[in-house]
């Protein structure tokens, strides 16, 4: 069988540029060389597509890849790559790509629309209020202060890697947190703080069936919560797959992850973050393009399910071919 060209697209303009390079590297290293010819593409922070031999604009790159019958493996995270922009461009140019559709990516990346859809699905989400940058900061602060008890959570509506997320313990810390979150998105949410254990659960689509991977418990070691340092510093978080919980709870986590994936119409794979307070599971967010470096949570869960990275990539690419 002829080998298929796979353009592994990484980098991008988002705050997660560096993380994406790690994801891209892992994908390049684990593609089955007998089935695929990899093409490395680094998208610059200015959205130019750097191939090994030349740099192209997005339209030039997509036209070129279409001629090559390439599939784009989207190894980006955050804005441009995970928020539906790149997916929309691929759809426009008729180039196959991995992961979730443009519409599903837009809904998943935005914590306002995804929270709405989780709630509509009957799942528990922390109480939240939504604000946009054209509102008066003092008014936002006084409304949030009146609506929640401390600690509370402030986060950008569309970001990742905990960038701009703050747990706020006092009214004094509220305004700086609101201003910080607005640096990363024009929309932010204020949210009820859930005190409990954090878990994350991957879902993989095979054919038309959705399978949940073994969940992981995340215990931050270097920080108060699962922030950027805890996520990316070596030893920053203790990750336990599967967590020490009874089988019924693990099953419930998996069932919720599958329901979240389906509710948002996600594609080949996703990873849903949840918090367990007493016996109640709250959905925090869904990641339509979870980190994919060798040590990332999603590949760890796949390994625990007996799937190698090579097999995992194969399934994700097959999904793209079937779209
Ligand atoms: N409502 C909440 N209650 C308690 N902790 C939260 C809450 N929301 C977020 N967190 C903590 O902040 C981290 C990052 O928040 P999240 O919404 O997942 O944003 P990101 O998309 O940046 O990962 C979570 O993994 C969790 O540790
Ligand atoms: Mg998260």
What does this molecule look like?
The protein has 323 residues and is of the alpha+beta class. It has three domains: 4-97, Rossmann fold (3-Layer(aba) Sandwich); 107-124 and 195-322, ATP-grasp fold, B domain (D-amino Acid Aminotransferase, Chain A, domain 1), CATH 3.30.470.20; 128-192, Dna Ligase, domain 1 (2-Layer Sandwich), CATH 3.30.1490.20. The protein is 36% helix and 26% strand. Strands 10, 11, 12, 13, 14 and 15 form a six-stranded antiparallel beta sheet that branches. Strands 4-3-2-1-5 form a five-stranded mixed beta sheet. Helix 3 (85-93) packs antiparallel against helix 4 (102-109) and helix 6 (137-147) crosses helix 7 (174-182). It is globular, with a radius of gyration of 20 Å. The two termini are 20 Å apart. The mean pLDDT is 95. It binds adenosine-5'-diphosphate and magnesium ion (MG). Magnesium ion binds next to loops.
């Amino acid at each position: 069988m002829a080998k298929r060209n796979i353009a592994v697209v990484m980098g991008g303009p988002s705050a997660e540029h560096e993380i994406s390079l790690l994801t891209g590297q892992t994908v390049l290293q684990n593609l089955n060389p007998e089935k695929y010819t990899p093409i490395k593409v680094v998208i610059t922070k200015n959205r130019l597509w750097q191939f090994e031999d030349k740099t192209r604009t997005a339209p030039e790159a997509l036209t070129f890849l279409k001629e090559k019958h390439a599939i784009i493996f989207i190894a980006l995270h955050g804005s441009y790559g995970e928020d539906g922009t790149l997916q929309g461009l691929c759809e426009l140019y008729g180039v196959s790509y991995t992961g979730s559709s443009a519409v599903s990516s837009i809904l998943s990346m935005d914590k306002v629309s995804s929270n709405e859809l989780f709630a509509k699905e009957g799942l528990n989400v922390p109480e939240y209020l939504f604000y946009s940058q054209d509102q008066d900061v003092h008014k936002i602060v006084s409304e949030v202060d009146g609506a929640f008890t401390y600690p509370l959570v402030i986060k950008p509506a569309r970001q990742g890697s905990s960038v701009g997320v703050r747990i706020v313990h006092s009214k004094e810390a509220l305004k700086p947190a609101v201003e910080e979150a607005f640096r990363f998105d024009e929309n932010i949410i204020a949210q009820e703080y859930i005190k409990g254990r954090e878990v994350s659960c991957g879902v993989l689509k095979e054919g038309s069936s959705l399978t949940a991977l073994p969940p992981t418990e995340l215990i931050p070691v270097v920080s108060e919560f699962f922030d950027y340092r805890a996520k990316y510093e070596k030893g920053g978080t203790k990750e336990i797959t599967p967590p020490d919980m009874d089988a019924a709870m693990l099953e419930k986590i998996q069932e919720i992850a599958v329901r979240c994936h389906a509710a948002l119409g996600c594609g080949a794979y996703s990873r849903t973050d949840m918090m367990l307070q007493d016996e109640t599971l709250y959905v925090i967010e869904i990641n339509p393009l979870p980190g994919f470096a060798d040590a990332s949570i999603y590949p760890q869960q796949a390994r625990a399910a007996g799937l190698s990275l090579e097999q995992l990539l194969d399934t994700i690419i097959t999904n793209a071919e079937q779209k």
